[in-house]
Automatic annotation (TrEMBL):
InterPro entries noted in UniProt: BetI_C (IPR039538), Homeodomain-like_sf (IPR009057), HTH-type_TetR-like_transc_reg (IPR050109), HTH_TetR (IPR001647), Tet_transcr_reg_TetR-rel_C_sf (IPR036271)
Signal peptide, first to last residue: none
DNA-binding region: 37-56
Top-level division of the source organism's lineage: Bacteria
GO molecular function, one term: transcription cis-regulatory region binding
Any single biological process term in GO: negative regulation of DNA-templated transcription
Biological source species: Actinocatenispora sera
HTH tetR-type domain: residues covered: 14-74
Pfam families: TetR_C_6, TetR_N
Protein known as: TetR family transcriptional regulator
Assigned keywords, A-Z: DNA-binding, Repressor, Transcription, Transcription regulation
């Protein structure tokens, strides 16, 4: 009597995607974005190259998916403050800045990858256009989230939310550059203090 082989379990698509993304993060960190190949990502994930391409059309698609994960994680760190926000708006943004600083300090590999891709976008026009459009959408989304958070603290003017998001992004990127070659350079409360000082500064009267 012929032996019936058990059917192999088909890996769910969401699991394939998650494993490919995790592998891409490791390979990009080890090899750099430019030097890494889809073949290496597939091998690290334990799948064929076809499995990678069935979920992501290119290395750039992998990068933007990883960027989505990073943004979602850091946005959650800030919006979680709405569950029990400090009464003072300055303390609120200071706490948000401290959380972002901790996330930056604990993720050196991502900072290296982001810096490499930033330089790639500056040198390649199609990549730059896509990167700029992505960041424009990101700014809109984050501004909405921060506006809701500030609204809970009694600040309803939408201008500070957009300004704070721009400042947080710019300072975070700059401080990350300082932190990369010399970990521990950036004081834990620096970003939060800067954001709080900007929020509570005297604003010029409208003309």
């Amino acid at each position: 009597m012929a032996t019936v082989k058990p059917r192999q379990r088909r890996t769910p698509r969401h699991e394939v995607r998650d494993r490919v993304l995790a592998a891409a993060a490791r390979v990009f960190a080890d090899r750099g974005f430019a030097a890494a190949s889809i073949d290496e990502v597939a091998a690290a994930a334990g799948f064929t190259k076809g499995a990678v391409y069935s979920n992501f059309g290119s290395k750039d698609e992998l990068f933007f998916a990883l960027l989505d994960e990073q943004i979602a994680t850091r946005t959650a760190l800030v919006t979680e403050l709405s569950a029990d926000p400090p009464a003072d708006p300055g303390d609120l943004v200071r706490a948000a800045g401290d959380r972002l600083t901790a996330a930056m300090a604990g993720n050196r590999e991502w900072q290296l990858l982001f810096l490499e891709y930033w330089l790639r976008a500056l040198r390649d026009e199609p990549t730059r256009r896509r990167f700029v459009e992505y960041r424009r959408e990101l700014l809109t989304s984050l501004t909405s989230a921060v506006a809701d958070l500030l609204g809970d603290a009694g600040i309803t003017d939408p201008a500070p939310a957009r300004e704070l998001v721009l400042l947080a992004i710019g300072l975070s990127n700059g401080l990350a550059l300082e932190e990369l070659p010399a970990p521990g350079t950036v004081p834990a409360g620096l970003l939060g203090d800067a954001l709080a000082a900007y929020l509570v500064r005297p604003r010029p009267a409208a003309r």
